[in-house]
């Protein structure tokens, strides 16, 4: 009886590994804006006794002193559907990754940074990892290609669809080969674009700035990045053609209260008349709509001048989102000269939706951890030549980056100012804000770049993640101390502005795995499942309770510093470095914590930035000015959050109704489209 109740005897024999039938390893190069920054290696193992196979992936790249590193192991069944997916490593900013998914007996379970999840499956489904390499797109595409309609349910939510775009030839070490491009949609706001060879093997993952391409084919990089840009552009061109309303004749927006930034007031209900790209008149409601005018019912809402995102890195995939969010002007703070030029030309021609772009030229020094945007230089003379290049292209300012040598900045600033260009930027490594102010900066970008000079040792290198992680030293800093006050004095004396990018610091310092971050709570339920999921992931690595408290304390120190700057009369520039749109709404909302009223925030984000950049044609609602504005049902003078619910946007007299467009992007509308009466229909 005792023996009968005991556990079965444990075998002492070592389990035999199934015999390998085939092993194939594929190697790829990661390039960012034409610069090699990393690698991807994928090994496929097929076993003699198993109809499926196993894939291991090693992925790593570094740019700007940071980057992701993932190791993946994926088990596929005979239909190419992942049954087990294990991912470890770290995100771009060092947040550790331990993600896993299993499917067994029609039940899927997974664990990612947001916590555990599970689903009972009544049909096959594809798990979309929260953090993984671009090889993910190939794994998912392989499975979709085995389905007649090339569509499958996605886990945790949504639907994936694969569409073939075209076949083309690329040149390799042994001559030309044929490759086909595909769009994988449904995982996020924008599709992924990948390329497969004739054997349906992964060839490349392509993006306008970033590419993962098979070793030996790197010479095709620029062409394929441009191809990706074309695909993305074509998608947004189609949306522009369908949803941009360019009415013939005048347009009258009836029954709106206009926000007047000069005196922070709202008018009585009026009608605003737009003719062409400009505001033609502001009429009392007693003035009737003329037969040739299109009439839009403002329903008593508030009409607000278009907003500025003063820290953008413009791309075609955020242009439409910005316009729909009432962001009608941006300042680009670093981009490819060619890509940005082509993009702005298409926006101004009306082919693409997008804000008006003011271009600042990034100048970065070459180093092992340099940024790959803008113009890279190795000498002071090359830096001066970069200033001249930007001046020749009509740029009104330059931006200095972290790997530049601080001792070059005085000459750069002197030349830039002689060419009537502003000088802004990060604080170069081994320098501090005081030195850059004395060297000629007009504006400092990112509040951490200023504050690190108060806590770092002179030999500490800010070209690495240290410029973010060292913020945990801020709680111990006395903000009334001499070093802090000296910097503020210099900023006041030299009329130096600050572009704090406060929302990204909130994201960095306060986001935690498994918690929806504060900056997105007002709109996240309207977003696609993949975006909702990503909103519960920490941006940085949090080592434990002590660092958690230090980061929270650092954010409070940042707020206090910015309050002190505001009290000293230092101009605060609202920019996001997060793509603008909803993130600009959050940036502005946070300024209430600095002591701004909602009306002051609206003025700062529109009129003040137009004045700062010398844009006399926008920033307020007046006859003769550009018709750049948006309408919200609520009153943002009382509650700044009202700017998050937009019923219409005019960008130079072309009208957009967000509720029409958002469903095309997988976003649930925030409000209804206003009533529009066509000319001669009223």
Could you walk me through the main structural features you see in this protein, from its secondary elements to its overall organization?
This protein is of the alpha+beta class. The longest helix is centred in the middle third of the chain and has 23 residues, at 221-243. The termini are far apart. The strands form three sheets. The chain has a 15-stranded mixed β-sheet with strand order 8-7-6-5-4-3-2-1-15-14-13-12-11-10-9. Strands 16, 17, 18, 19, 20, 29, 30, 31 and 32 form a nine-stranded mixed β-sheet that branches. Strands 21, 22, 23, 24, 25, 26, 27 and 28 form an eight-stranded parallel β-sheet that branches. The protein has 17 helices and 32 strands.
Oligomer: single chain
- Please give the CATH class of the largest domain: Alpha Beta
Strand content: 25-35%
As for the number of domains, it is: 3
SS-based structural class?
alpha+beta
Extended strand count:
32
Q: Averaging pLDDT over every residue, what do you get?
A: 93
Distance between the termini: 95 Å
Major sheet description: 15 strands, mixed
User: pLDDT below 50 for ≥5 consecutive residues: which ranges?
Assistant: 1-15
Bulk shape: globular
Domain Amidohydrolase-related: 303-642
Organism: Lacimicrobium alkaliphilum
GO molecular function: hydrolase activity, acting on carbon-nitrogen (but not peptide) bonds
Keywords: Hydrolase
């Amino acid at each position: 009886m005792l023996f009968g109740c005991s556990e079965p005897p444990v075998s002492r024999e070592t389990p035999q590994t199934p015999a390998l039938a085939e092993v194939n390893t594929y190697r790829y190069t990661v390039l960012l804006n034409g610069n090699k920054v990393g690698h991807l290696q994928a090994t496929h193992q097929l076993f003699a006794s198993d109809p499926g196979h196993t894939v291991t992936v090693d992925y790593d790249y570094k740019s700007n002193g940071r980057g992701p590193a993932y190791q993946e192991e994926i088990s596929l069944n005979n239909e190419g559907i992942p049954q087990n997916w294990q991912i470890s490593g770290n995100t771009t900013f060092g947040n550790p990754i331990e993600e896993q998914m299993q499917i067994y007996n029609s039940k899927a379970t997974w664990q990612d940074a947001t916590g555990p999840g599970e689903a009972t499956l009544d049909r096959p489904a594809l798990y979309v990892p929260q953090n993984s390499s671009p090889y993910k797109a190939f794994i998912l595409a392989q499975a979709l290609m085995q389905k007649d309609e090339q569509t499958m349910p996605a886990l945790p939510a949504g639907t994936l669809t694969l569409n073939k775009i075209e076949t083309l030839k690329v040149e390799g070490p042994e001559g030309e080969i044929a490759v086909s491009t595909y769009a994988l949609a449904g995982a996020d706001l924008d599709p992924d674009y990948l390329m497969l060879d004739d054997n349906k093997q992964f060839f490349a993952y392509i993006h306008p700035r970033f590419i993962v391409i098979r070793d030996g084919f790197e010479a095709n990089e620029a062409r394929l990045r441009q191809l990706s840009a074309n695909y993305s552009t074509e998608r947004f061109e189609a949306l522009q053609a369908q949803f941009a309303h360019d009415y013939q004749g005048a347009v009258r927006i009836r029954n709106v209260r206009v926000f007047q930034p000069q005196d922070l007031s709202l008018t009585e209900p009026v009608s605003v008349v737009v003719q062409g790209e400009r505001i033609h008149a502001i009429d009392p409601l007693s003035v009737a709509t003329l037969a040739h005018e299109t009439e839009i019912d403002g329903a008593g809402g508030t009409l607000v001048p278009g907003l500025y995102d003063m820290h953008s890195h413009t791309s075609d995939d955020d242009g439409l989102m910005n316009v729909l969010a009432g962001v009608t002007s941006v300042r680009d703070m670093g981009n490819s000269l060619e890509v940005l030029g082509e993009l702005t030309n298409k926006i101004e021609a009306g082919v693409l939706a997008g804000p008006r772009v003011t271009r600042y030229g990034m100048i970065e020094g070459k180093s092992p951890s340099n940024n790959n945007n803008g113009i890279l230089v190795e000498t002071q003379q090359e830096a001066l030549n970069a200033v001249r290049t930007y001046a020749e292209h009509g740029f009104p300012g330059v931006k200095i980056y972290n790997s530049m040598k601080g001792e070059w900045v005085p000459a750069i600033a002197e030349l830039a100012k002689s060419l009537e260009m502003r000088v802004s930027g990060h604080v170069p490594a081994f320098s501090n804000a005081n030195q850059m102010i004395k060297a000629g900066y007009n504006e400092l970008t990112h509040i951490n770049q200023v504050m690190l000079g108060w806590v770092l040792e002179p030999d500490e290198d800010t070209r690495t993640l240290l410029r973010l992680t060292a913020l945990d030293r801020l709680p111990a800093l006395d903000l009334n101390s001499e070093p802090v006050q000296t910097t503020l004095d210099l900023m006041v004396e030299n009329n130096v502005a600050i572009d704090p990018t406060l929302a990204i610091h909130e994201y960095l310092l306060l986001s935690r795995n498994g918690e929806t971050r504060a900056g997105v709570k007002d709109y996240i339920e309207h977003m696609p499942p993949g975006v909702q999921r990503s909103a519960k992931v920490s941006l940085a690595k949090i080592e434990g309770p002590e660092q958690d408290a230090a980061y929270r304390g650092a954010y409070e120190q940042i707020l206090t510093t910015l309050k002190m700057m505001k009290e000293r009369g230092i101009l605060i520039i609202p920019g996001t470095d997060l793509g603008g749109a909803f993130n600009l709404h959050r940036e502005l909302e946070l300024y209430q914590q600095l002591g701004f009223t909602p009306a002051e925030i609206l003025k700062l984000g529109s009129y003040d930035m137009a004045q700062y950049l010398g844009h006399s044609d926008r920033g307020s609602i007046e006859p003769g000015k550009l018709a750049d504005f948006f309408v919200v049902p609520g009153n943002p003078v009382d509650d700044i959050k009202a700017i998050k619910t937009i019923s219409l946007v005019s960008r130079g007299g072309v009208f957009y109704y967000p509720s029409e467009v958002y469903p095309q992007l997988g976003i649930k509308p925030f409000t209804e489209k206003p009533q529009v009466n066509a000319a001669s229909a009223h």
